[in-house]
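User: I'll paste a sequence; please echo it back and then give the predicted structure.

Assistant: Echoing your sequence first, then the prediction.
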Amino acid sequence: YIGDTAYDMACAADAGVESALALWGCASPEHIRADFYLAHPGEIPSVFVRKEDPRKNRRWLKWAMELQFIAQAGLTYSKDRFDLERFGRIREIAAEIVSCNTDLSFEQVHDLFCLESGYQTPKLDSRAAIIRDGKILLVQEMTGRWSMPGGWVDMDQTIRENTVKEAREEAGMLVAPVKIVAVQDRNRHNLPPHAYNICKVFILCEPIEGKFESNIETVQSGWFPPDRLPQMDADKTTEEQVAMCFAAAENENWKVLFD
């Protein structure tokens, strides 16, 4: 139930359904309780038209991720050698859970979990939405599928710098980042689910100049209208994410979407 007054939220509560307060029509949200607070109409699809979390039916993956998180924090902050041994065993159990439910060996999963030390936080992935004349620039991955140019944010790069770097490396295009479109929890929007959390940042970019150059990450690049997209690499970019970026490009007052 979407409304802009306290009475609307009361109606939703009486009906036993989720409520969303439309802030663009609300005189003041003070003291108005709602399940969701929407800054503008564009947020409605992202809040209510949600894909089922792929981890919901894979409880083992959620358990493994939580155990890995607990183990890494314990290994980081514990001083007692017996506790360190116990946390090491918890990490092994997490790796065993993933290995038993996937095609990955225990060693592969264990190495994945042990790549980092310190308090565990989501990885950052930036994607450049380069749009010109109603078309978006996509790159073909080695898998044969397509995605927006982008990748892991390097430790010495800002979001802006990394977006420029990835566009240059994967698409051969110099770009000017102009607007953040969305910040998304990858496992809520992309498949297959990963055993670690990733925060994906989509940035609308203006193309400056350049052309595709041979590289070790992508095969080719191309410009595509929204209704004629190639087969997308859902691990990196979905059709819904492309549509979201087109919508942001067409709306001067676009508000950043975030999970």
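The longest strand covers residues 173-185. The chain has a mean pLDDT of 91.
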